[in-house]
Amino acid sequence: MTIDRRKLLQGTAALAAAGALVGPFRAGRALAQAAPMFTPEEGASLRLLRWVPFVKGEEEAWNANTAAFTEATGVQVTIDQESWEDVRPKAAVAANVGSGPDMVMSWFDDPFQYPDKLVDVTDLCTHLGEAHGGWYDGLAAYGSQDGKWIATPLCAIGNAICYRDSHMKAAGFDEFPTDTAGFLKLCQALKEKGTPAGFPHGKAVGDGNNYAHWLLWSHGGEAVNAEGQVTINSPETLAAIDYAKQLYATFIPGTESWLDINNNRAFLAGEISLTANGVSLYYAAMKDEAMKPIAEDLRTTNLPIGPVGKSVELHQTSTLSIFSHCKYPNAAKAYIEFMYRSENMNKWLEAASAYCCQALKEFAANPVWTSNPVHAPYAKASESLRVNGYAGPLGPASAGAMADYVLVDMFAEAVTGQRTPEEAIANAERRLQRYYR
Amino acid sequence: MMPGPDQARNARDAAPARARRGLWSRLSESQNGLGFLFMLPAAIFLLFFLTYPLGLGVWLGFTDTRIGREGVFIGLENYLWLFDDPVFWLTVFNTVFYTTIASVAKFGLGLWLALILNRHLPFKNFFRAIILLPWVVPTVLSAMAFWWIFDSQFSIISWSLMKMGLIDQPINFLGDPWTARWSVIAANVWRGIPFVAISLLAGLQTIPQSLNEAAAIDGATPWQRFRKVTLPLLTPIIAVVMTFSVLFTFTDFQLIYVLTRGGPVNATHLMATLSFQRAIPGGQLGEGAAIAVAMIPFLLAAILFSFFGLQRRKWQQGQD
């Protein structure tokens, strides 16, 4: 099918009008957005490499939006899926050899591994930011480098405390503590009641890194400074380790070996009453009739605020990048622009059931965040998000340090007594210096 | 008669053709030439799929290549860094410990099993078949089963012992460094025994029964028959089997990756898992390759020990 600008305009306008008729979102805005910024090249087709979806609804909504784009423009979009951890090497190889997928939906600092192999999307991201209430700072940092946008931030995968309300109350707490000191007291009380907390100190890619970064940042510690110099050896890091040791003493035994799934299993089996996780924990409990009592007792809240005075968390982050070898960069930009249109993005966020937190502020008004109180803390993920390797630059060093579990190991070494806190910090410092050389 | 100009030209043209035909016919008629031709496809295959990747790996170890970006030659920097890296040395210790203990256990238990299966047992063939099951099951699946068996909260072993009143809280199988090491070794031994047992059983089947009978008539005890007849005749196959077993164990990856990913605090990290962690998720291909290359001397030592030690004629002849 040959696509010209007229057909594209007709198609997108018709689609936007249809969306306005049936969708719950503002028609005026949808129509206003119907004018496309980018005209796909003639005969264009695209291939997107994305991570394997965690939520079926999210995949269905993404695919439905993609089909609508194809219908409107005639541009075929093939979607390939790879497991979470395989996206990084595959995308890096594609960037390096200059063939393979045209776009990638990747994690964390991946675009910073090959920024010169990506299409400049400053025009697209500037437009999206202006049209949708602006980008959240943390997510914007994952997409821009030296004033240029190299990737389009897609979402944060929110992480929040999941706890059993009845157990918290039985431990003598009416409200969930909002600061780290109160949180420690709650964990101590839960342990005394035989309903302990548990956070992974093992090599859990997501949960382990989230927990370790929160421990460090909430106490004011930083792995590196803004210039990329290693500054982990600080009184703040020592305070974070001291706090982690006290917290670890209240955990269920065995958290040193926990991988990403272990805290879910222990929580759903009633072995622990407090952990941090994505909203998937709640939905896993909801799906199983036998676990309904746990689901009804489950509450969520944001991780407590430490001496640093504000909520700071890592959260997983995903971005969309277009490779320079893509023959149809305008089609790729048109595709992304289409997916971020209010009606489409809102549909996708809603279908993701609070698993994906918006990158653009307009979508904080999505009904998914108010439809269930359990979702509410996940709405703040993009706000509390700090970039990996804060306060240093994103790139191969920050990516390598996280993949090598430098912070996870530092806390695990110290809390298990394998090294003194000072030795654990010195070891982390040495390993970080290797990456940030 | 003198040759005419045409004949001379024909002779000139025919000479290279004859030489070509000659080379081909010489090659196809010579035993060595034919052998070379037959080996050529295999040699090309090995060159492309074995020598080239190995050479590339060695080269990458001398560069700072990252995933997605070519590196430059940095000499021994990766190795010097690894030399000062306690995590690397911990993985070297873990790998040697894991390989030694697991290989010895697999050999002892495998030989014992082979000797039992070599006797006239009821349902002998059935037992010989099911003994292969742990080897046949994909490693990832058996590793998943062990993951549950060693779970810090839901272990069947802990549950049984607690029900029997022998312990009052679950065993922290994968959380404590030493219990984690022993746990992963146990899983590896379980998986590796069938290979050793079945291979040694094949070796046992080749030993003529008459030798054992003759020794028995001469008054040899069962232990003496095993020590002086069976074991020496079995030594060549032990050498081969244990070489493979040591190589498989030394380069183990899947079991560790599924069970612990090298945790707790790198206590079960092997050189193969550390190499992967730094090269692929970490993106430091050069350093990962250097770790993989550092495995080669250990593997060569194992092969050399096997071929020049275990295959010594003296041992095979039962002499001390």
In short:
The complex is a heterodimer of chains A (437) and B (320). Helix content of chain A is 45%, strand content 12%.
What do these coordinates show?
The complex is a heterodimer of chains A (437) and B (320). With 437 residues, chain A is of the alpha+beta class. Chain A folds into two domains: 5-158 and 315-384, 3-Layer(aba) Sandwich (D-Maltodextrin-Binding Protein, domain 2), CATH 3.40.190; 160-313 and 404-435, D-Maltodextrin-Binding Protein, domain 2, CATH 3.40.190. Chain A has helices at residues 5-22, 27-33, 56-73, 84-97, 122-131, 137-141, 165-170, 180-192, 207-218, 235-248, 262-268, 280-287, 292-297, 329-339, 342-351, 381-384, 396-403, 406-415, 421-435, and strands at 45-51, 76-82, 103-107, 144-145, 148-149, 152-157, 160-164, 274-277, 298-301, 316-322, 356-358. In chain A, the strands form three sheets. In chain A, strands 2-1-3-10-6-11 form a six-stranded mixed β-sheet. In chain A, strand 4 and strand 5 form a beta hairpin. In chain A, helix 1 crosses helix 3 and helix 9 packs across helix 10 (235-248). The relative contact order of chain A is 0.18. With 320 residues, chain B is mostly helical. Chain B has a domain at 81-119 and 127-137 and 182-316: MetI-like (MetI-like fold, Orthogonal Bundle). Helix content of chain B is 74%, strand content 0%. The mean pLDDT of chain B is 87. The chains are: A alpha+beta (437), B mainly alpha (320). At the A-B interface, helix 4, helix 11, helix 17, helix 18 and helix 19 of A face loops of B.
Give the helix proportion of chain B (percent range).
Answer: over 70%
Taken together, the total number of domains of chain A comes to 2
* Major sheet description of chain B: none
SS-based class of chain B = mainly alpha
Major sheet size, sense and barrel closure of chain A: 6 strands, mixed
List low-pLDDT spans of chain A: 1-33
Overall average pLDDT of chain A = 90
Whole-angstrom Rg of chain B: 28 Å
Quaternary structure annotation = heterodimer
**% residues in beta strands of chain A:** 5-15%
Membrane topology (chain B): Multi-pass membrane protein
Protein name (chain B): Carbohydrate ABC transporter membrane protein 1 (CUT1 family)
Organism (chain B): Paracoccus lutimaris
Main location (chain B): membrane
